[in-house]
Amino acid sequence: MSTIADVAARAGVSKATASRALSGNGYVSDTTRAKVRDAAGDLSYVAHPTAASLATGRTRTVSVIIPSVDRWFFAELLEGIQESLLAFDHDLTLYGVREGAAARTRLFEDTLPRRRFDATIAVGIPPRSDEMERLLRIGRPLVTVSSYDERASAVSIDDPAAMRIATEHLIDLGHEDIVFLGGTEKPSEMSYSEAHRLAGYQGAMDAAGLNSRHRQVPAVSTMPGGYAAAADLLGDRRSRPTAIVGVCDEVAIGAIIAARRLGIAVPTELSVIGIDDHAHAEMFGLTTIQQRPREQGREAVRLLRNRMDRPDDPIEHTVAASTLAVRNSTSMPR
Do residue 181 and residue 144 come from a single domain? Predict the structure, then answer.
């Protein structure tokens, strides 16, 4: 089996030059690079990834931290990240760890600082949190998704604005009794996106003079979570709202299913709107605020490449577009 020393000897260069020519790291003239590649081809030389890592200091691996892989948004986001990393000739090491889990604490305190990665993509890490501080202290290029800290490049949607648009759509239709379905009872336990979407709902209600009508019903951000919370909410006719704005499409779809089970017609008796444009949103006729997580994943890798190639460049923040898609789950109140 040929070695880098054999390639260097055949090309008439040093081993260091041959390594730079084949790895693309460091300057080598075009003529020398061509000679080395021709020599490698003649000898059927294939660089061993571990040896290349030791020579260049790069592992060609990116760590990806994500709260969950069984929810549509995160699965789509991961597809976009993986697709772009493979095109970039990089592998990924995935850490799917839910917020609040003991394993998550160990990940940030022990695992990530010890492992060798070229960079990190972190999803939903609250800015100024202990987790963000630990990632920044590691000193590797970092990009965040679905949250924004001015010290790291990021791609996100404007969560408060997206929820404001969703709530205003219901208000414009004439609804006043609008429930925000999602989040937790304790604000400190909400995710970054949940907290900002709740703020967007409250801001829209306040702007419409409905500040006394705020109503949040906690729900786990899944279809079963939305179904369970909505079934309790809608089961009491006296407290039943005319409209629900779901913290995400999965919660909103769960609410539609609960309404149908209770014999409540959507949208004539209950309007429902969500955020995401989930794969099932069209099937349920769900009015929603569209976002494209797969494109956000691709954009995260683009930002990461910029940080890796030009670490001294200014931090970048991409705000992904979000658009209202009106279907048949919302109408004027009866």
Answer: no
